[in-house]
Structure formats: C-alpha cells, structure tokens
Give the backbone structure.
Amino acid sequence: MRYRESGSLDTSGVRDARGGGGLRGGGGRGLAVGGGGLGMVGLVVVVLLQVLGDGGGGVPTFSGLGQDQSVDNSALAQECRTGADANDSVECAVVADVESIQDYWTGVLGGRYERTETTFFTGSIQTACGAGSSGSGPFYCPADQLVYIDLTFFDQLREQFGAQGGLFVDAYVLAHEYGHHVQNLLGTNARVTPGESGPTSGSVRLELQADCYAGAWATHAETVPDDSGQPLIADITDDDIDRALDAAARIGDDYIQENLGSGTVDQEAFTHGSSEQRQKWFRTGYETGDPARCDTFATDDLG
C-alpha cells in the first residue's frame, strides 16, 4: 500500500492524547464496540459497560465529543504533512487512512454521515463508555462517537497474533472501526442486545458487517478524492488484500480461542465471528464494493 507522495494530510481527524492524560467524557455510558476481536489473548472485548438509555429520568447523556479534553496535535501536525510522510510513518499513515475512510463514507451517505475523530492513546484512557485500555484493542464508543487506538496494537497484531501486518492491515483495522461509526449513525447498533453471544448473535452480525464495510472502502480507496480532488491512496496490491485476509483469519473467535486462549472452541461464546466468516464478509465488501451487500442482519447464511 502506498500513499500519493504529494497528497496533503489533514490531522484534524485525529486526537493525540498520548501525552496529555487522555480524554474525559461528561457523563453517559455506552456500548463500546471492540475492534473485531482485536483484544488481548482470550479477551474479545465487546461490552465495556452497560448501554446508555435515552437520557431520561435524570440520567445524563454524553454530549459533544468530550469535555476537559487534553489533546495536543501540534507534533502530529508537524510530522504528518504529506503522503510521503504517510509512506514513512505509521502515525501519518493512520492520519491518511482516517481521512480516506471518512471521505468515502461522506460520498456514500452524504449528509447522513457525521465525521468523527480517532483518538491516539497510550496504556489507558477514560471515554464516555468507561475506561479503555490497550488490552481492549482498538474500539469505537458510540456515546462519544470516537474511535480509540493505542498504536502499539499494530505490533501486537504481528507479534502476538502472528499476522503478517503492513500498512493496509492497519488501514483495515481503522476501516472496521469506522464501520461501527456508520452502524451507530444508521441505528444498526439498536438491533443488538448488549452482551449477547453465539455464532448467529447480533454481536457477530455487527462485527461481520463492519468487516464488510471495510472491504467496500478498500475497493474504492484508490479513487476516493480528498479536498484536492485526487485520492490520498495511490496503490493497494493483491498482497495487501492477502495480508488483510490473513489478519481477519487470526482475529476470528475460533482462532483466538484455540490458539491464544483455552485451546477449546466454544461457538456459544462467539462475539465477532469465525475466521472463515470474517474473511468471507471482508471479501464480500471488497468484491462488490457495495455497502448494501453488507446486510448481515438479513441473511441466515453468515458463512
């Protein structure tokens, strides 16, 4: 995967909270959606805290994108200026990924899409969904509509899960999380009962759809225009797609349970889908390029 060298990067889509103590949300709790099985060994994190109601009965809801924020993007803005920087730096590549993914969804959904940010943090962070940690893997919090990631996760994905990794695998992870943001905007989250599990559960359907959405973005990534009218992403190769499928296989519930957990596969504990399912739905999005083909809630055949 390569970025257009002369492309201009916009760091406003990222909040760098790594040195500032993180973000604090003003009240409210929500269903934090895990990064598709991208958590610590044996811990596929879907629900951090209880789902927030409608805010009635005196229960405060989270408004805006955070209060008492402690973020500093100055260093990131200095380091990540062009696509050439993205080709040389994982941080800058994520900046470019976030911009491309959101430009894609703006084109697909128009005014229904609301742009949001990805928060870089180290170790742990307070969110409107409760405390998040590096051990949770990347996750999306509907209550503050933010994506959260400790960038050391990309190393963990290679070293602990054995994935081949690479810039496009990193982009797949981000595109999956923004798929959860799209689900939140469209109300898809409301179709899922918090904490449910099983091979055909709503939780699994939600995660597989996010994989499919990531694949749909990937198909169009080389043509999604930025503000200059040109795409930020110049090249995605067959090897990149193979690496993403490799990563999808290594974050399936069955692979994690068998190879990184107890050694026994328990389908009733599935929350993200099997390796085969995750590959199937990423391929569905990638091969069709059509998010409408990603309706995992309308089929009895999840793969």
User: Anything to note?
Assistant: The radius of gyration is 18 Å. The longest strand covers residues 67-70.
